[in-house]
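Hello again, I could really use a second opinion on something today. I've dropped the whole record in just underneath, so have a look.
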Amino acid sequence: MRIFIDKQSPKAFHALVQTSEAVRTVAAEAGLDRTVVELINLRVSQINGCAYCLDTHTKAAVRAGESSQRLGVLAAWRDTEVYSPTERAALALAEATTDPTDAVAQESAFEGARQVLTDDQISAVIWVAVTINAFNRVSIMSKHPVRADRSG
């Protein structure tokens, strides 16, 4: 039986929530649209296999105006034409942040990001990816449940 580490250590979890709120502000100040932030949250959560965060951020992306088509093809974003150059650069950088063992992918992602993102946006994308990676670990290790949505 797992423990919910967010409930077991609320001070640590609260610090992570505060970090997330600061990162969201940094992203907005850097000019990253909320949908870009949610795409990063979703892509990283896909890579990590975090069902709870996928559920949470799918709902957040829909609230932010994201389309079902773009959400549906996110795992194969490289094979579509539905994402902007900014979104593509952000997704590549988020993936490289999530899997830091691939130095070639990191360099390629950073080089691509440099062509379309500002330094503030690059920093914000990396911080968004770092933060959702942390939340993924909290939810995965706690086995946070995803309950059936009975509203629709």
